[in-house]
Design a protein that fits this description.
Helices cover 0% and strands 55% of the residues. It is an all-beta fold. A hairpin with a 6-residue loop joins strand 4 and strand 5.
């Protein structure tokens, strides 16, 4: 059984910063992909950023165009934890942020953490 536990959401003013964390536990294969998605009210869930496990060469990353240059995804493979550093936040970043793990062909989701950016 795989579980994802997120933390770090909250309320922040525009141009502020937040850091999200997601710890995975259970049967985690060393080669996997972790990432963050978000869903704003009335909108579909969308990709924010993903990072591969990068056992030998470091994780490769991919970002949504809307967050490039402002958000940074990173991970600690020893802890099976992924982070999302969010800087220069905008009101349009307001959403529920979900941690995602692709592990041995199965997809897992965290419970979601609310991020609210006030103008």
């Amino acid at each position: 059984q795989v579980q994802l536990v997120e933390s770090g959401g909250g309320l922040v003013q525009a141009k502020g910063s937040l850091r999200l964390s997601c710890a995975a536990s259970g049967s985690i294969f060393r080669i996997n992909v972790m990432g963050w998605y978000r869903q704003a009210p009335g909108k579909q869930r969308e990709l924010v950023a993903i990072i591969t496990s990068g056992i030998t060469s470091g994780g490769s990353t991919n970002y949504a165009d809307s967050v490039k240059g402002r958000f940074t995804i990173s991970r600690d493979n020893a802890k099976n934890t992924v982070y999302l550093q969010m800087n220069s936040l905008k009101p349009e970043d307001t959403a529920v942020y979900y941690c995602n793990l692709l592990n041995l062909g199965s997809t897992y989701w965290g419970q979601g953490t609310q991020v609210t950016v006030s103008s």
